[in-house]
Amino acid sequence: MLKLEVDVDKASSDAVELLRATALPHHWTSEVLGAHRVNGSSSVEVLEGGSTIEELSDELLLAVDSEGHYRMTLDNSKEYGRHASYDGKTLYLRPRFGPYHARLAQSETEASDIRNEVFAGASDYLELLGRQLELSDKGESVFEGRAARSIALQLAPEARTVDAETLSHKLWRNSIVVDAIRGTASLDAETGAVLYLQFEGTISYQRDGRSLQMKLQAERTISKVGHEESIGAPDDAAIMTIGARRRELAEREELLKSIAPPARKAPTPKASLKDGR
Questions:
Q1: How many CA atoms lie within 13 A of 4 on its CB side?
Q2: How many whole angstroms separate alpha carbon 46 and alpha carbon 52?
Q3: pLDDT per residue over 225-245, tens digit each?
Q4: Is residue 267 part of a domain?
């Protein structure tokens, strides 16, 4: 089992520890909780001079069984997204519309990487607010039938010093000023897994010489812990069968039959030496 323990007492009062707990990968959550479901939503709105210049919202559904098999859909307001299923051997992938494409995972971690990436959306947004996040421990509670610790998220009086970004596409983060944060979280008392996370906040920042503002909100809920549903492949009718692709030269010869002369084959090294070239 992956050993990434969460100190529940510390994460209930220390913003850095809570940020670390929310950013733990989904495959860790599966290992400590077993079968469960995740429902998530988030939105981001970018404003300049009080006018919206960009916005995006999304919805996440993720179910994982006791074997680590999963079914996932992530759709957004731009009418695209990604859907995936994994039955322990084969990945079934598709964009928001169309049939699934079935193939083996291209690496030992690809199946986990996909669900980890979509699960991380809420924690990525919270990280932008994290330098001025303050917590209030609200004590013991019960969430979805499990013993939990409730936490209130709020704006700290002063920003915490964070490491400066050095990558060119992230330099704008060095100018972030957090204007507002409000939210709640529930930690599983036994494992420290974040069972519930909800927040909204606003940041101001500079990018490419422009003064911008970003409004963020996200919600992520873990439920049905220990459910007995077994997750397998999608229905056969939803899976696209792809035949083996022929070599390009064979395709050319058939398409141009009786129209163009056969293509000359490239000389082999032995043939070239024989011809004195």
A1: 16
A2: 6
A3: 999 999 988 888 788 865 444
A4: no
DSSP for 43-62, written as a single string: EEEEEETTEEEEEEEEEEEE
Domains held by the chain: number = 1
Residue 2 lies inside a defined structural domain of this protein: no
- Six-digit token string for 234: 């999608």
Cα separation, 198 vs 152, in Å, equals: 10
Structure tokens at 217: 């909100």
DSSP state of 156: -
Count how many residues are written for the chain: 277
pLDDT per residue over 104-131, tens digit each? 988 999 999 999 999 999 999 999 999 9
Q: How far is CA 196 from the centre of its chain?
A: 17
Work out the number of other CB atoms within 10 angstroms of the CB of residue 60.
23
| Tokens describing residue 190 | 């036994």
Q: State the Cα–Cα distance between residues 61 and 40, nearest whole angstrom.
A: 7
Q: In angstroms, rounded to a whole number, what is the distance separating the alpha carbons of residues 169 and 167?
A: 6
Which domain covers residue 110, as residue numbers? 8-255
The answer to whether residue 98 is domain-embedded is yes
| Total-model pTM | 0.83
Tell me whether residue 268 is in a domain. Answer: no
